[in-house]
Amino acid sequence: MKLFLCSHFGKVGTLLKDDVEGKKVVFIPTASINEEYKGYVGSARKLWKKMNADILEVEISTTPIDEINKAFAEADIIYFTGGNTFFLIDQIKKTGVDNLIKKHLKSGKLYVGESAGAIICAKELSYITAMDEVPSDFSQKDYSGLDLIDSYVVPHYLCPPFKSISQKIIDQYSNLKLVPLNNSQAIFIENGQVTQLSVE
Prior knowledge:
By secondary structure, the chain is of the alpha/beta class. It has helices at 9-12, 17-20, 39-50, 65-74, 85-95, 97-106, 116-119, 163-172; strands at 2-6, 24-28, 54-57, 77-80, 110-114, 152-154, 178-180, 185-190, 193-198. Helix 4 packs parallel to helix 6 (97-106). The radius of gyration is 15 Å and the shape is globular. It starts with a strand and ends with a strand. The relative contact order is 0.20.
C-alpha cells in the first residue's frame, strides 16, 4: 500500500510531482462540502492541474455508487481533501467506499489524504473530536477509521487556527502513536515503511 498523508496539499503536493504527471486522479471533496472555508480545495485542484494530472471530481455523498466504482477503476490516484473527518468517514462507510479504497490500494494505487483525508486512515478517530465536530446526523455506531496505518495523524500542528487545539491533542493522547504534521510536512508510507517529507 502506498499513502501520501499531509495537512495542506496545496503546500506540499509538489513533493509528488514526479509521480503524477499524466495520471488520473479521483478527486473527492466530500469532507469539505459543509465547511464554511474551502480555500484548500481550490488550491489543491489548482496544484493537481499544474502538475498535469487528469482530475475526475466525485462527491461521494451524492454520486451513484456505480459512477463511484467507475471513477475508482479508471483512477491511478485516490485523493481526499480536508474538511470534517466525521462527515467524511460517515459518507465513506454509508456508501461502501471504504471497501473500494482498500481494494484499489491493494492493487497498487496511491492514496493521497489531506487533513481529514489523512486522519481517516487511522484505526479509530475519537482522538480528533477536539479539532472536528461530530455532525448531529452521524450514523455510525462508533468512530472507527479505515485502519490503513498504525499511527494517528494530527494535522495543522502548531498552525493557526489549530495551534492550541493540536497541542492539546498531542498532550492528551500521549498513549497513542501520534504523527504531528504542520502545513509544510507530509509522510509517505509504502509497505509499512514511513518516510517524513517537508517543503521549505
